[in-house]
Design a protein that fits this description.
single chain, 324 residues, alpha/beta, UDP N-Acetylglucosamine Acyltransferase, domain 1, 7-stranded mixed beta sheet, 5-stranded parallel beta sheet, 8 helices, 22% helix
């Protein structure tokens, strides 16, 4: 089985974090968003990765190749024209193959191994509060009969969450090409939902796979919420020197903690240094440094340094902040 992972997005809603690194590499609960996704795919039985990279794609490439020992075929999307366009570019690597596609900015917690058991063509779905923000599907007799992308007047609230399974990917590529060749756009882009509609019209039957735990990491608020949920039950083995770690939290073994209280709901990545500080409900990306701070509800970029008193911050990589 092969996995197609679109990770070419800019991540505007996570700025300034994404000024210097792609959204998929922002840390949550001890590892990059992309790491959570790939680990789940490997547990599912995926043996090859096909990431679609763009914005700061070299960082994505370096992370995947240094972390995972599986064949990886990087596809570069120079211009973002929509997910259907992105997926169409992977055809030479995955045509006629069993394929799972998952968007690179959402974390799904489910039994991935059960997805292929659901049917030959499967779409991950979940009820949402605001269906106007998603592709919405209608189900009849256990089969998805219709899909509308971000409807102005939704006829339901069962949303596609960006997880798609195809026993044979060929019909997917034929549908994507049809959408592009006929310039079928929704909201200004070639949407994968339009390709899925084309497949349904051609006779493909999609089965819904209901997802309970689905985490959107597109904004700082939802990123911190996801961090809290995923940290539940985790116990750190690195409380530091003269320090206290309050669970749940994650502290990388290669970080240094001195005279501090860390937690609850704190994720500390590799190479971080925390001194004389109290930190809760926050994410520290790799090699960041916190000194003499009371920090809460914050996301600190890789290599950033904060010295001061009290604050709630969202700062980019390699920043320096001094709070008097």
């Amino acid at each position: 089985m092969k996995a197609v992972i679109p990770v070419a997005g800019i991540g505007k809603r996570l700025r300034p974090l994404t000024h210097s690194s792609p959204k998929a590499l922002v840390t949550v609960a001890g590892k990059p968003i992309l790491g959570h996704i790939v680990d789940s795919l490997l547990d599912m039985g995926v043996t090859e990765l096909v990431p679609i990279i763009g914005y700061m794609g070299d960082q994505i490439r370096d992370y995947l190749e240094s972390t995972y020992d599986v064949p990886i075929h990087h596809v570069v999307q120079e211009e973002q024209k929509g997910i259907a366009h992105a997926v169409s570019m992977t055809r030479k690597y995955v045509d006629h193959s069993e394929v799972v596609t998952i968007l690179g900015d959402t974390i799904v917690r489910t039994d991935f191994k059960k997805i292929p058991q659901t049917g030959d063509y499967v779409l991950g779905v979940r009820e949402v509060e605001d269906p106007r923000r998603f592709g919405i599907c209608e189900i009849q007799d256990g089969i998805i009969r219709h899909i509308v992308e971000k409807p102005d007047q939704p006829r339901g609230n069962l949303a596609l969450i960006g997880l798609y399974y195809f026993r044979d990917s060929s019909p997917l590529f034929e549908a994507c090409e049809y959408v592009i060749e006929n310039d079928i756009k929704t909201k200004g882009e070639y949407q994968i939902t339009d390709a899925l509609v084309r497949m349904i019209e051609s006779g493909i039957e999609f089965y819904p796979y209901r997802i309970d735990d689905w985490f959107d990491c597109g904004k700082v608020e939802t990123l911190l919420e996801t961090n809290r949920i995923l940290l539940e039950g985790q116990v750190t083995n690195n409380p530091g020197t003269n320090s206290i770690a309050i669970k749940p939290c994650y502290i990388d073994p290669d970080s240094i903690i001195e005279n501090s209280i860390v937690g609850p709901y704190v994720s500390v990545a590799k190479g971080c240094r925390i001194e004389n500080s109290i930190i809760e409900n926050s994410i520290l990306n790799k090699n960041s440094s916190i000194s003499n701070m009371v920090l809460d509800g914050s996301v600190v970029g890789a290599g950033a340094s904060i010295i001061g008193k009290r604050g709630s911050l969202n700062i980019s990589d390699d920043s320096e902040v001094f709070l008097g």
